[in-house]
Amino acid sequence: MSITQKLNQIVESLPPEVVLVAVSKTKSEGEITEAYSAGQRIFGENKVQELVRKWEHLPKDIEWHMIGHLQRNKVKYIAGFVSLIHGVDSLRLLREIDKRGAQQGRVIPCLLQVHIAEESTKFGFDKTELTEAIDVVDRGQLPHIQLRGLMGMATFTDDSAQVRSEFKYLKSLYDTFGQGRENFDTLSMGMSGDYHIAIEEGSTMVRLGSSIFGSRNTA
């Protein structure tokens, strides 16, 4: 199947309230253009240099999401145009994004990444750190941050019960911290291998790459 056919099939299968981020990391501008021509407007990248290059070359109505681990010294390169930063995994990074947002004169939408997986290689806040970060935002100390919700990655395993449990936990945190909070409307969880479970557990945004573009190109 072509990229267009796969994309259309996925879009038709998703509930209307679930937003699709097409993960275009390592994919060519031609492949992204095919998905764009099929109607996709939200794309996710995990490397700043690649994200900047694609933003410069491709249509300006694309919403670019930074979905990978973001180093503080790279924030300045994307602060002027990024639509959503998914992987905010420390208070220091949040402060840096706020600083760069102030320099750009814009409020930058962010998701706080929660560590829900067993793998120690995954990044993210634990519940205590999450509470602290949200409290800092609530006190008005980061006026150039718009806190839109939470993001998480489940353990890479064939054990669907474990994956479901991890997503369920993240949804419970999202519900707890989102109560009465304006614009807190995004729960980004679910990738090509587990997005069906994520949607069943309340995801509002899924990040799909190989399901749309085929197996990942080597970077």
Plain-language structure description:
With 219 residues, this protein is of the alpha/beta class. It has helices at 3-13, 29-37, 48-57, 75-78, 91-104, 127-138, 160-178, 195-200, 210-213, and strands spanning 19-23, 42-45, 63-66, 84-88, 108-114, 145-152, 186-188, 205-208. The chain has an 8-stranded parallel beta sheet with strand order 7-6-5-4-3-2-1-8. Strand 2 (42-45), helix 3 (48-57) and strand 3 form a beta-alpha-beta unit. The longest helix has 19 residues, at 160-178. The two termini are 23 Å apart.
A few lines on this structure:
This protein is α/β, with parallel strands linked by helices and 219 residues long. The chain has nine helices and eight strands.
- Give, in order, the helices and strands: HEHEHEHEHEHEHEHEH
Give the C-alpha Rg.
Answer: 17 Å
Number of helices: 9
Number of strands: 8
Helical content stands at: 40-55%
Give the termini distance in whole angstroms.
23 Å
Instruction: Tell me the fraction of residues in β-strands, as a range.
Output: 15-25%
Summarize this structure as a short list of keywords or feature phrases.
single chain; 219 residues; alpha/beta; eight-stranded parallel β-sheet; 8 strands; 41% helix
